[in-house]
């Protein structure tokens, strides 16, 4: 085969590969367009359904309220009418009775005038006596029209105007939520969720973050956070499990929440931090991320280690104090290379820690820098990054060597930064705590 044919064949293969890549890219873009169209149509359908349902509920509620109000007003008219007509009916009965008596008296008087002379005297006497008994000069009083109720309905036409004004401003349709999830960052047994405003004109007073398991039809979104911060660490998540996250906001002076952001899927591959079970003097929660020192020992300060070396450099390790006991200078919270069983405190070699009085220890030696004392509600954070003190070749990496870790410990509004020299190359570390007195309760994440 000639060189020209080889060149042409190579060019043809390259063109075919380029065409395949081009087609693949176009297909991915078509898939993206279909997803975008699905989101527009799907969200539009949901918005229509939400609007129809909401306004149908409003119409039913408004009709019910108006009917109830009409019934109440008609009942008031009925009561006024009944109370006002009763004395008029009584007066009418009295007058009709008097008219009947007068008719009867007239008939007797006319009969007395027509009778013969023999009985005229008796009948005229009887008639006169009866006329005196009836008291023909006594008439019942009939109330004047101004004293009789004249029922009317007072209807304020401004209600319709107010209703029209409120209805014209009720509800809104937006094409983009004012906030969106910006980043999902995996942490041990948790995910750090960050969000941001995408509508600069929206003044947010509070944010609301929700999450649920992905793919489980019966699972409902649960509130994870409500507040002013724009990030939150969602704890107690199972590793290698997809979770859906969404966020919304509430404007300044408003009670209603904005539309939800587009749900984002996140997961963590990192096992959650756990305390080691079975350590004497400590009780653990069901998830083993909370430890309670449940007895005191003046003679020793037992260490509770993590169940495994799950802290990796580059992460943030946090101890949250939810209950506090009496302080002792031997108390400690920190990180160590190994889980040495015989040690009485983390204030030892190959460990860095902070005591409850705020003293910082590196390989058992106390630093001059000191942090605020640890109390209930305190959060202590450890951040580390590797800094090689001496160049370490691949040959002696497994054999160990001098490693320097840059450590940042934060407590309250202060932090200390220092270099920690360890005698071996480590990529994961244990964490631990030790308390002399009971009452200390620590959450780790």
From TrEMBL:
Q: Which GO terms describe its cellular component?
A: cytoplasm
User: Record keywords: Cytoplasm included?
Assistant: yes
InterPro entries, per database record: FN3_dom, FN3_sf, Ig-like_fold
Q: What sequence ranges are listed for the domain Fibronectin type-III? A: 177-272
The reply on keyword Ligase is no
Q: Where in the cell is it found?
A: Cytoplasm
The job of this chain, per UniProt, is described as: May play a role in the negative regulation of cell cycle progression.
Protein name listed in UniProt: Cytokine receptor-like factor 3
